[in-house]
């Protein structure tokens, strides 16, 4: 009786995603204590090669002066010679600033990313593999570090309440230090000939003013002739408002991890609870500012024109330097 009531509660609450345990599920874990990372040398942190499929479920990194914004982590999946997951450590956790800036904002944590101490940064990204993977680290100066990784073999991949196909791979698409002129577009991810789901977007941007945050985030799904608008502005996409004027926040669905200077921000958005799915292609794009009207501008028909004041001229915009990380789960069509 109690079990059935619990099951009903979970189903009504929309969070039911229980995974039946099978005999071939096998947990794995590894830890490095006080390891040495030589300067400018790619060091293997962990290698898993049992021939079984599985999912990485957690990674934790620490080491003052080493596991910071200059630490590069690469994950080679299923024998790749070029890592499909290749990231700078802080940016992969939604942080666009430096360690010296970030230390004033910790501790904080969500179910997917957290920063608990000097270093002490971790994620619970579910990274699938078919038979093997290898994790490496590189740093320009090197030093002493600590590292933990965990996962489960023959473990289903769940995104929110969706069971993803067994062939799913996690891919990372990046733009690094791109200078956008006013009203320039930038493509965050252009995925073709595959089905999939958007997992996470991180944006790090810096300018001389906040006019660029008027930009709408856009998506074109399955080669559609129409653009789907994902937000009415940059901060709106990350579930904030008014140029992030209430400062930093770290929530499960979205967060702002940096807001400083004249107009520097970094923010993240997860798509577990509001899936963005595609069956053959996905194009995500962003813009440096926005026009008020016109074919390329954000829609101007909500609310109706009769209920809004006269429009103002678009402000003068400055160049904006942008870095983006876009994580996408992909599987065969």
From TrEMBL:
Keywords attached to this entry: Signal
Record protein name field: Uncharacterized protein
Cleavable signal peptide: 1-17
Lineage of origin: Eukaryota, Metazoa, Porifera, Demospongiae, Heteroscleromorpha
Species per Swiss-Prot/TrEMBL record: Amphimedon queenslandica
């Amino acid at each position: 009786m109690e079990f059935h009531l619990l099951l009903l509660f979970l189903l009504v609450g929309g969070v039911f995603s229980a995974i039946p345990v099978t005999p071939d599920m096998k947990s794995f874990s590894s830890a490095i204590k006080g390891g040495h990372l030589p300067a400018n040398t790619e060091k293997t942190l962990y290698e898993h090669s049992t021939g079984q499929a599985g999912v990485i479920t957690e990674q934790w990194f620490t080491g003052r002066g080493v596991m910071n914004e200059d630490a590069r982590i690469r994950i080679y999946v299923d024998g790749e010679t070029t890592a499909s997951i290749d990231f700078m450590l802080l940016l992969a956790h939604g942080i666009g600033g430096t360690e010296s800036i970030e230390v004033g904002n910790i501790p904080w944590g969500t179910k997917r990313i957290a920063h608990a101490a000097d270093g002490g940064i971790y994620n619970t990204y579910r990274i699938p593999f078919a038979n093997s993977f290898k994790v490496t680290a590189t740093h320009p100066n090197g030093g002493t570090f600590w590292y933990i990784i965990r996962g489960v073999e023959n473990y289903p991949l769940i995104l929110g309440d969706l069971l993803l196909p067994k062939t799913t791979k996690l891919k990372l698409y990046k733009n690094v230090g791109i200078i956008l002129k006013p009203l320039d577009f930038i493509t965050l991810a252009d995925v073709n000939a595959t089905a999939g789901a958007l997992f996470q977007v991180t944006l790090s941007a810096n300018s001389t003013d906040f006019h660029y945050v008027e930009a709408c985030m856009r998506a074109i799904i399955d080669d559609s002739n129409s653009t789907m608008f994902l937000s009415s502005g940059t901060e709106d996409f990350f579930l904030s408002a008014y140029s992030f004027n209430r400062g930093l926040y770290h929530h499960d669905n979205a967060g702002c991890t940096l807001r400083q200077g004249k107009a520097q921000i970094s923010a993240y958005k997860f798509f577990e609870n509001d899936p963005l799915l595609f069956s053959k292609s996905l194009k995500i794009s962003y813009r440096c500012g926005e026009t008020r009207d016109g074919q390329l501008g954000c829609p101007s028909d909500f609310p109706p024109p009769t209920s809004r004041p006269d429009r103002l001229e678009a402000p003068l915009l400055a160049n904006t330097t942008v870095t983006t990380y876009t994580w996408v789960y992909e599987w065969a069509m």
